[in-house]
Structure formats: structure tokens, C-alpha cells
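Hi V.,

You were right to ask for the full record rather than a summary. Here it is.
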Amino acid sequence: MIVNILALVLAYAFMEFVAWSNHRYVMHGFLWSWHKDHHIHDAKRADDEIRKQKGFEKNDRFFLIYALPAIVLMIIGFSSHNYLLVYIAAGITLYGFTYFMLHDIVYHKRFRVPFVQNNNNRYTRAIIAAHRAHHKPKNKTDFNNYGLLVFSKRYFNA
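Predicted structure:
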């Protein structure tokens, strides 16, 4: 059981590296055509205004792509009774849920969830500052904020 919990935690932590590298080299690389509408729509909305856009962005396709490994691991893990794979899939899924909550609900406000969006703790404010710097860079190093949970300490003072 300890091994399974450790696998879940390590999978969750590893997903920050996966998110950073995919955001940097895939989304801002060869699949920029899918991701650019995310930056364009964000640039058009005021900071505190709820986005009026209906439906999905092309960028939302990434959600499906990143969910596939967890789905496959769950199917294989349950069907083969290899529960270590299920715990790894759970770690990936929990990271995806965290990403959705912080990125789409807290920062971009794509859905109204007041008890989450009114969360004003120091770490949440730093996440928002780091992501704002990525979307509205003041300098070249600001644009390098590709991760979600790990970023420069300077955003704690923003």
C-alpha cells in the first residue's frame, strides 16, 4: 500500500515536469496552432472580467491528449489487477484536476466557482502572478513560466 501511495505522489509530482515541458516545447512549439487561441482570447479579456466565450478553444484538445495515458493505465491496471498502474493513473488524474482548477477556474475564470475563485492565499496569488506573467510578459524571462505549481520565488512578492 505504501508503494502505491508513493507511486501516486510521484506521478503527481512528475506531471509538473510533463506539463512544463509540453507547454514549452509542444504548445509553444509545433502545436502552437492549437495553443495560440488560448493566448489571443486571454489578451482580449480584461483581468477581472469573466470570459464571455462559449464553447471550447482549440487549446482544450490538449486536455483529451493528456487524459489518454491515465485512461490507458487505468484500463490496463484494473484488467490485469496491477493496481500500481491504477495509482499512477490516479496521480496523473489528480494533477489534471489541479491544473483544471487552478488554470481554468482560478486564473482564467472560465467557470464560476466562487469558493475556489475567492481563495486569496499567498501561494494562489503567486500562481496567478506567474501565469499572468506568462500571458502578459513584461520581459523575456516572464514568458518562460511554462509550469503551473513550480515557479520563481519572485512571484510570491508580486
